Amino acid sequence: MPRSTPDAQGRPIRLQRIGEQVRHALAEILSRGDLRDDLISRTIVSVSEVRVTPDLRHATVFVKASNGDDEAVVKALGSHARFLRGEVARRLATKYTPDLSFRRDESFDAGARIDEVLRRPSIARDLTDKPGARPWKSLADSVEDDDGE
C-alpha cells in the first residue's frame, strides 16, 4: 500500500502540503521584513512554489522579484538560507526542516510567451467562434473588464 496518495502530476500530496507550509512561512518572513538585507527589503519577492524532496531534507524555492532582478534576489536569498531555514523551522511542526535552495521562477515568463503566441493574428483568428468577435482575451484584459474599464 502506498504511503501517500499521488496527485495528478504523480507527486505525493504530503510533499505538496509540506512545500505549501514552507512557502507560506517564507512568504511571511519576507513580507514582515525579518530578513535584514537591503536588496530584499526594497523588493517585493513572490514565493510561487516550493518543491520538497521525498526524504524532506531539501527544498527548492522558486521566487520572482518585482523589480525584475531575479538573479540578484536569488543570490541574496541563497546567502541567507541558513537564517531562513531556522525561521521556517520555528513555524513548521515537522521532524526535519529542509535545506533551502533558491531558483528563479520561469513560469511567469512561460505564461507571457504563451499569451504572446495566442495574440498573433494567425492564431487569434482560429480561437474565435464567431466572425467579428474579439479574438484572444488575456488575463490582463479579463481583470480590466472586471473592473468596469
Automatic annotation (TrEMBL):
Residues 129-149 are annotated as: Disordered. Coiled coil: none annotated. InterPro entries: KH_dom-like_a/b, RbfA, RbfA_dom_sf. One of its GO terms (molecular function) is ribosomal small subunit binding. It comes from the Bacteria. One of its GO terms (biological process) is maturation of SSU-rRNA. GO terms for cellular component: cytosol. It is found in: Cytoplasm. SUPFAM superfamilies: Ribosome-binding factor A, RbfA. Pfam families: RBFA. Signal peptide: none annotated. Its main location: cytoplasm. Keywords: Cytoplasm, Ribosome biogenesis. PANTHER family: RIBOSOME-BINDING FACTOR A, CHLOROPLASTIC-RELATED (PTHR33515:SF1). One of several proteins that assist in the late maturation steps of the functional core of the 30S ribosomal subunit. Associates with free 30S ribosomal subunits (but not with 30S subunits that are part of 70S ribosomes or polysomes). Required for efficient processing of 16S rRNA. May interact with the 5'-terminal helix region of 16S rRNA. Monomer. Binds 30S ribosomal subunits, but not 50S ribosomal subunits or 70S ribosomes. Belongs to the RbfA family. This is Ribosome-binding factor A. It comes from Sandarakinorhabdus cyanobacteriorum. The gene is rbfA.
